[in-house]
Specification:
Helix content is 25%, strand content 15%. It is built from 6 helices and 7 strands. It is flat and about 145 Å long.
Length: 253
């Protein structure tokens, strides 16, 4: 016969509220004790966090970090700031100044020494009379002599890319309307042709070329540009030849 233990165990759960077996669900003793241990665990975690944070703050208070001293300059006006450097300007290296007068050797005054007359060189510079005789003017009578010819240089016109300095640009006075090509009219082609023309000293177009435009309209644009009359460009109150650019527009309506 086994002895019956009447003393309660310290870790045993009370079964006074149990109504039926087997125990499961919310009525199980472990489920009933779960919330109690969960609350105690949260309280202990919060206390551990508070103690750790308080210890860290106390250690920082007892061992403060070294203070960093910042030098602050107060500017009263914008004049002390100066002009800011340019971003596009390159920084040139500083070249030390050298006193050229002190570095250069002192000049030595040479003294001429007489030499025998036989060793003296003959003068190579012509006198004024010799130069006048050598550069005798050319007349019409001397042009026909054998072995001599007269060369007359003609003034050449500037090229389209040449720069011609002028004081007054040419001004167009009149121009005939362009003749519409039949091929372009049938194809319903419209547009503007950019023409570059050489305006002579008399104001008329001496040469012409097309810079940009439709191929069907180029010949008609050149023919129209050649009919233009300009007031010639002036340089020093004298007419000069210069290239000008102007458009020739073709419209059907």
């Amino acid at each position: 016969m086994t002895a019956r233990i009447s003393a309660p165990l310290p870790d045993a759960f009370s079964l006074s509220r149990v109504t039926h077996f087997p125990l499961s669900g919310p009525s199980h003793p472990l489920n009933q004790e779960r919330w109690k241990w969960l609350i105690w665990g949260e309280i202990l975690a919060i206390l551990l966090f508070v103690l750790s944070f308080g210890g860290w703050k106390t250690w920082q208070h007892l061992h403060p970090p070294p203070k960093v001293v910042h030098n602050v300059r107060f500017v009263r006006s914008t004049a002390e700031l100066g002009v800011p450097p340019s971003l596009a300007q390159q920084v040139r290296p500083t070249i030390p100044r050298v006193d050229i007068a002190a570095a250069a050797p002192k000049p030595v005054i040479a003294r001429p020494e007489p030499v025998p007359e036989a060793e003296a060189q003959k003068p190579t510079i012509a006198t004024t009379t010799e130069m006048r005789e050598a550069l005798a003017p050319v007349t019409v009578g001397t042009v026909g002599t054998p072995g001599e010819s007269l060369v007359i240089s003609e003034e050449t016109s500037p090229g389209p890319e040449d720069f011609v300095p002028v004081e007054d640009q040419p001004v167009r006075i009149r121009i005939d309307p362009p003749i519409y090509p039949d091929v372009a009219r049938q194809a319903q082609v419209e547009g503007t042709v950019i023409v570059q023309a050489l305006v002579g000293k008399d104001g008329k177009v001496k040469d012409c070329r097309v810079i940009e435009g439709n191929e069907m309209l180029r010949e008609a644009a050149i023919a129209c540009a050649k009919t233009a009359v300009f007031r010639p460009a002036l340089m020093g109150q004298k007419p000069v030849e210069v290239w000008v650019v102007f458009p020739v527009t073709f419209k059907l309506h």
